[in-house]
Design goal:
This protein has 62 residues and is mostly beta strands. Helices cover 10% and strands 45% of the residues. The protein has one helix and four strands, in the order E-E-E-E-H. The strands form two sheets. Strands 1-2 form a two-stranded antiparallel ribbon. It has a two-stranded antiparallel ribbon with strand order 3-4. A hairpin with a 5-residue loop joins strand 1 and strand 2.
């Protein structure tokens, strides 16, 4: 579910490194909100990341 419907930003994987340099897998999730937006003329609920909301890529419905 953690995927933006506008820019396709999703989870990314990497390695967490502790102070003693023990390594374990981790993942970063994007900040995705469920908002009401205008899609092809009608209001719908979509999943959009906050970067797309802030930059104006998403036209919010009232």
């Amino acid at each position: 579910m953690a995927k933006c419907q506008y820019c396709d930003k999703g989870v990314s994987f990497g390695i967490k490194v502790s102070h003693s340099h023990r390594r374990s897998n981790r993942m970063w999730k994007p900040n995705v909100k469920r908002v009401k937006a205008v899609v092809s003329g009608s209001p719908r609920r979509v999943h959009a990341c906050t970067r797309c909301l802030r930059s104006g890529k998403v036209e919010r419905a009232v």
